[in-house]
Amino acid sequence: MGRAAVIGAGSWGTALAKVLGEKGHQVRMWSYEASVADQIREDRVNHEYLPDVMLPDNIDVRLQHAEVLEDSEVVIVVVPSHAFRQVMSEAAPYVPPRALVLSATKGIEVDTLKRPSEVLRALLPRHREPGVLSGPTFAREVGEGDPTALVVASRDPDLAREAQGFFNTERFRVYTNDDVIGVELAASLKNVIALAAGIAAGLGYRNNSRAALVTRGLAEITRLGLAMGARASTFAGLAGLGDLVLTCSSELSRNRTVGVRLGRGETLKDILASMKMVAEGVLTTKAARALAHTHRVEMPIVDEVHHILFEGKPPKRATADLMLREPKPELWGGSHAT
Q1: Fewer Cβ atoms within 10 A, N terminus or C terminus of the chain?
Q2: Structural class in CATH, domain 3-178
């Protein structure tokens, strides 16, 4: 078995550490919070982020990057996108040159519009090509052992196959993909559509509305992906449709929950102040809109979510404006359109 480092001790980082630990790897986690490290050491449970899920004894947790990363064969980065560059800038000097480095972060850096793998390439220029781990996953269900399927994407096929073998278990199946752009865009942008699905639910709209948002949201994501060099087939897979359906449909989704509360009339400021964990879709909405403008791609659902989040537009008005846009064929201009 191997040695793995997990950078980030939130719910998803903890769940991934449990998968690796149960497979027999030696796992060291980096935690920003000393209280979380103490909980895991003393109780073998991350009470803060993944309560009631017992962690095996071969998982250790530290506060120093050097201690976590020493001699690691695989490094999985699981921190919020807004902290990704800072955390990895601090960790980079300690990442072993031959380590397999994977991002499991679902977001886009707002200031630069860089995807996590692009940030890793910049910070680790002499290391191996980074990979991306994504798919339809709720940390709690993974932590509790539900069968789960994901995808690992890398421009280096050997790296993707190595990661696949490092993770695969009877309850955690990993497929490979070389479309890094598509996998990362799908992972990030589905959170924006989940906000929209939550807003619709908060307004009292039901299954018809959710189905329309999932379908047309996928069209928007795919259209941007194609403009940026991704493959259409990626958006029909686990990282695309699979993750989108999951995130838009379940009450376990943080982004959908934020949307529900917005639809019911709460302010974004109050919602975010009440949350311990990050809803990536909020900042990703800014990045998605900027990318759409940069690549001249029409994304009306993203536009309306942006109006609601940052411009104070009433959700009912946004819904009406979305529905009353100029009538069009479902497919037009040689690509998907909303």
Answers
A1: N
A2: alpha beta
